[in-house]
Structure formats: structure tokens, C-alpha cells
Amino acid sequence: MTTRAEVQKLDAADPLAKYRAQFDLPEGVLYLDGNSLGPPPKRALEALRQTGEREWGEGLIRSWNEAGWIDLPKTCGAKIAPLIGAGAEEVIVADSVSVNLFKLAAALLGAAPGDVAVDDDEFPTDGYVMEGLARMTGATLVRLRPGDAIPMNVRVLIISLINYKTAAVADMGAVEREARSRNAAVIWDLSHATGLIDVDVKRDGAKFAIGCGYKFLNGGPGAPAFLYVAREEACRLHQPLSGWMGHAAPFDFAPDYRPAAGALRFASGTPPILSLAALDAALDVFSGVELKLVEAKARGLGDLFLERAMALGLKTISPLQGGRRGGHVSLIHENGYAIMQALIARGIIGDFRAPDLMRFGFSPLFLRYTDVCEVADALAEILRTEEWRDPRYARRGVVT
Ligand SMILES: *Cc1c(COP(=O)(O)O)cnc(C)c1O
């Protein structure tokens, strides 16, 4: 078992330790849910004040031009692009992951009709959206199990690079090769990967992706999502929510739709400027950050936690120490909900995924190795004293 002294050395030698100061973290809280809602970077809170009071309050409608509001979907996209290995004009920020998936999958199906497929253990909204699209188009929705080959008639496949339950990392290059051999297009859900691991869509041949703005990108609650389309693909795709923000010249007010060049044609309606302002500032935290270091630290924090969790006799569905794992570790326990509530009562905030998973997110930009030991110690004590049996830990909120 790694000793406390060794753990302190890891923190002392951590090249990412300096980023913690950029976040506004409450006193007395260990936050292990940055994979679900990133905490506010100080500069994002400042941007919200600035955009609200100065740009909205004083600039009023002039700020669409003068404060660059109209370009924010592109500006934010250009800041996300290097995090996934894409070109600046290949990424835009708009809507939610669910809506972006619908637009992209519908556009792909329009260009090459056939069936659609989704992994059985995919984040549910992805399956729900594909179900709706299948109903609308008459396509069959195929649910894939681990190890299944892509069926011949499938034209569009949605898959997460990092699974939201297990944190297992898929092999992007291998999936792309298989899909190409079957004439299927892959839409990557990068929600749990962006800002955490070193994604490289060009190296791996990925042409389509969507992802979340409020997880490791720290864009704030309900931050808009992003959408990536390779430049050679965008021009042949027509998305169904062809609103004016995706028009080549929205302020011509022309009666007919003419799509903008590149990924911008996937925009639909007026963008949420307050949310975009926060996301735009939050993305600046990543300027100069080496994602290989972030990925390595995420694994290091998770390995340390797993070492201690296994010593307590707990079970995991996440890749074990040394395995390719994203930013969280999921432990299985039949009383997981109550145990997590007992942790939260102590200021250690993780989350719970039905039916029996306790999720511990290890965001490398603001967590320390010593924090992991504290979490493991608290968990050990809660299990030993059985304090989770307190009836108040059984009450469930809508959001778990
Ligand atoms: C968080 C998450 C989403 C969220 O989708 P929204 O439509 O933006 O709410 C979708 N897919 C995955 C894999 C996620 O982790």
C-alpha cells in the first residue's frame, strides 16, 4: 500500500498542482463530481458578472457585435478543437448533447439511409434520441452488446469514448477501422473524455463527435454542448433543425435556407450568451495544459483510490490499476446510495448511479493525491461504523 509519505511526494511533484488555485472551491468540501458538473473556474464567475452587468446591462443589443456575442459558438468551438485534435472551424458549441446527436445522426442518415446502432450500456439519452430518430425515419435501432460486430445494414453508430458507468476507454482507431469496413459512420460521444484525456480525432480517423460543456470543461450547469464534423464531411450534410443561426447569412433574412460552411451549419437558434460566456472563460483554464499529463494524473488518482478501496474488500466495474481508465472509479455496493449520502454529509461529494454504483470522479486539475487518501479513510470509517444506516441517508432526491 502506498504510504502517506509517498502520497505527499506525489503532490509535491505534481506538475498540475498549480491549476487548483484557478477554481473557486468551497471550504471543507472534497469534490468528486467534476465528471458530472465541473466546479466554477474563478474566471468563469468573473465572466458571468462582466457579461451580465457590462455587456448586457450597458451594451444592450450592441453587444451582439461589440462584445462578440454572435461569434461565441465559433469562439468556444475553436477553444475546444485543440482538446480533441480537430481544426478550429470544425467545432461549434450549441444546444445540448442530446440535440446535437439528433441533428448529426439525422444528417448522416439522410445522406446514407439504413439502420442505427447504440451500445447497450450507453448513456441513456443517446439511446433515447436514437430511438426517436428511428421512429421518425423508419430505421431499425440495433442495441449492441460488448464484442458485437457492427451489423451490415447499420449506417450510423453512437459510442462513448469513455463509458459513463465504468470509465473504460474505447479504442477510437479500432472502432473507426471496423466501421469503415462496413460503411458505417461513427458519432463519438466525448462527454466524459474532453478536457480529461488526449483525444486526437485526426490520428484515429474520427469524423463526427458531440460532447458536454459542463463536465470536465467546467462550463457551468447546463452549459451548451459541442459538435465536431470533419471539414470534408460537413459540406455534404444537411441537418434537420436548419434554423437561422446555421444559415450562411442569417441577417439577409432571405426566405430560403442556405447552410453555412463547415460545422456552423449545425447551429439552429439563438445561442445562450450567459452560458456561453461562462464556458468561454472556463475553456481558458486549458490554455497551455498538456492533456497527456491530465490523463496520467486521472489514472494515478484513480489507481490510488482503487488500491485503498480493494483493501477494504470493495468491488469495482472500472478498469483496475494500470488499466486504461477515464476520470472516475465506480464501486459496486448494494447500499451504495446510503453510503454516498453519508459521504456527502461529511463534505465528500460523489454521486450514485442506479442500481448500485457509487461514482467517484477524480478531476486532475483541482484534486490532490492526499485528497484521495482522505476520501478512502472516510469511506472505510463509514463502512466500519455503519453510519450509512441512519434513515436520513435513505431519502432520495430526483437527481442522484
Ligand atoms: C452527460 C452526458 C450527456 C448529457 O447530455 P445532454 O443532452 O447535454 O444533457 C450525454 N451523453 C453522455 C455520454 C454524457 O455523459
Question: Which key phrases capture this entry?
Answer:
4-stranded antiparallel sheet, 400 residues, 37% helix, binds pyridoxal-5'-phosphate
Question: What does the model show?
Answer:
- This protein has 400 residues and is an alpha/beta fold.
- It is built from 13 helices and 13 strands.
- It has helices spanning 4-12, 42-58, 63-66, 72-84, 97-111, 124-137, 172-181, 201-204, 231-234, 273-283, 291-311, 336-345, 369-385; strands spanning 30-31, 91-93, 115-119, 141-144, 154-160, 185-189, 208-211, 226-229, 315-316, 328-332, 348-349, 351-353, 357-361.
- A 7-stranded mixed beta sheet has the order 2-8-7-6-5-3-4, sandwiched between helices. The chain has a 4-stranded antiparallel beta sheet with strand order 9-10-13-12.
- α8 (201-204) links the parallel β6 (185-189) and β7 (208-211).
- α2 runs antiparallel to α10, α5 runs parallel beside α6 and α11 (291-311) packs parallel to α13.
- Pyridoxal-5'-phosphate binds next to α5 and α6.
